[in-house]
């Protein structure tokens, strides 16, 4: 699993063994929190199984979803570099298992293997480019397409792993992420529901057919 992860796959087998010896399992029940926004950040987490949501709490108490994560995704790598407080909260959407790597062990390997430092810089650069792309998407393009891309990123994983996935997100959160109005999101969801992509809607939840969604849009290179 470490060998498949984004910033660790460049390490030789011996380094992966060293890191694995420092990692500890973390099991979460559904709705449990991995960590909360503004908590001290001192570790990275690798998702082995399950699904989690990343969200921020606004000053007025609203929760704004940022991403959904699944097996193979990495959480908290920035904390390994700066040790600052968490910029968002992470909550399990279903029973999940993660593996924790503390900053001290990671820093030691980073100092000993410069390839990992280069890979980490490339990862951060890709995230900056992705942030720019999302801003461009929010500034233009059909709302229904932007909405479908958001749902694709949030659903995570491969379409074959679960035909229909439940997403905990409100229409207002989708509107904020897509740079549009709640009314436009509602119309877009109605259209996606007619196409069978959105299977069902409930209060603060959507059920999305990942197979139909993947067929309607190209695979998104960024998850989380």
UniProtKB/TrEMBL annotation:
Record key words, sorted: DNA-binding, Transcription, Transcription regulation
Domain Cyclic nucleotide-binding: 7-127
Keyword DNA-binding applies: yes
InterPro entries linked: cNMP-bd_CS, cNMP-bd_dom, cNMP-bd_dom_sf, Env_Response_Regulators, HTH_CRP, RmlC-like_jellyroll, WH-like_DNA-bd_sf, WH_DNA-bd_sf
Pfam families, sorted: cNMP_binding (PF00027), HTH_Crp_2 (PF13545)
Entry keyword DNA-binding: yes
SUPFAM superfamilies referenced in this protein's UniProt entry, alphabetically: cAMP-binding domain-like, Winged helix' DNA-binding domain
Transmembrane domains' residue ranges: none
Chain ranges of the HTH crp-type domain: 141-211
Protein's recorded name: Crp/Fnr family transcriptional regulator
Species: Carboxydichorda subterranea
């Amino acid at each position: 699993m470490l060998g498949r992860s984004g910033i660790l796959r460049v390490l030789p087998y011996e380094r992966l063994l060293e890191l694995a010896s420092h990692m500890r399992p973390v099991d979460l029940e559904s709705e449990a929190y991995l960590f909360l926004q503004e908590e001290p950040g001192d570790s990275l987490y690798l998702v082995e199984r399950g699904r989690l949501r990343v969200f921020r709490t606004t000053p007025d108490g609203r929760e704004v979803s940022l991403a959904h994560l699944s097996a193979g995704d990495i959480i908290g790598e920035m904390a390994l570099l700066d040790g600052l407080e968490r910029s968002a909260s992470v909550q399990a959407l279903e029973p999940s298992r993660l593996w924790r790597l503390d900053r001290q062990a990671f820093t030691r390997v980073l100092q000993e293997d410069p390839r990992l430092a280069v890979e980490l810089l490339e990862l951060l650069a890709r995230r900056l480019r992705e942030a720019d792309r999302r801003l461009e998407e929010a500034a233009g393009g059909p709302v229904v397409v932007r909405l479908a891309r958001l749902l694709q990123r949030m659903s995570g994983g491969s379409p074959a792993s679960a035909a229909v996935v439940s997403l905990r997100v409100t229409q207002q959160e989708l509107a904020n992420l897509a740079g549009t109005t709640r009314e436009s999101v509602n119309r877009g969801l109605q259209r996606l529901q007619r196409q069978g992509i959105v299977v069902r809607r409930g209060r603060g939840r959507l059920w999305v057919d990942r197979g139909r969604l993947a067929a309607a849009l190209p695979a998104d290179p960024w998850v989380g």
